[in-house]
Amino acid sequence: MKKWMQFLVLITSITSTSALLASGGSGEGGGGQMPPVTNAKWKAECSSCHMLYHPGLLPERSWNKMMNGLDNHFGENAALDAATRDEIARFLALNSADKADNRRSSRINQSIPANTTPLRISETRYFTSKHDEISSATFKRKSIASAANCAACHKSAEKGDFSESQVKIPR
Amino acid sequence: MRNSLILLGLLFSINAFAATPQALLKQYEAQAKQENSAFTGFSADRGASFFRTEHAHSNGQKVSCSTCHTSDPRNQGKTRANKVIEPMATIVNPQRFTDEAKVEKWFGRNCKDVLERACTAQEKGDYIQYLMSVK
Hints:
Chain A is mainly alpha-helical. Chain A has helices spanning 3-22, 40-45, 60-67, 82-94, 103-110, 125-130, 136-139. Chain A has one domain. Chain A is globular, with a radius of gyration of 19 Å. In chain B, the strands form two sheets. Chain B has a two-stranded antiparallel sheet with strand order 1-2.
């Protein structure tokens, strides 16, 4: 085999291996990243005050608790009419971390003890271990505000893409 | 009974068509008259002071409409979770007060957050009157 052909084969195998790794390998069928999901009411209602959180970030029991407590949603009234609330709750449940077929959601779910129902993603063990090198001062920067503002550093967070290569921590 | 049901239905269907701030004001006016027989109209000045008056919330914080909307309603505001709120003044944001369900949803939430009670029709009308008057 000619030198250039060997080189081509090498390059091809490297790129296909990294593509496989980036998609999360073959462990879980759905890959590493959370799949794109959409629901018009979820998008409209859950992003008017804060960034849009992907349903695959919390298990169904967490979403249910949240949707049943919108009168006091982290200290604010976020009440919805019953029909809208129920539709969004169903959508969240269907795509929740314990239902989702992707590696990140499964790991988030596995990091949550069965007898707890967290409402803050940033309180899950998965989150804290992934962010242990980020100081609380960094989270408090004006450009970030808090650990709840995923999109400050993960620019595709609202699409459910939290891959490390997308991370850019603002000054 | 039947007649009043029909009347009620008619009232709701009229409500559903309210698509201008003026039409909304008419509705709040009707409500305000029911709530208070001494009602004499809405006031932009009263709305302006309502917008900026701070209330001592039971959580220890001092809050007002302008906490999030800023003291100039022609400005963009910011939610506590760092998201932009489009301006409230109709002169810069003509979309304001054109969707009754949206208006009621936010009065419902924000009155409870700021005042820890529902707003009266008088307060809602004054508020809208003020935001329509800002030039």
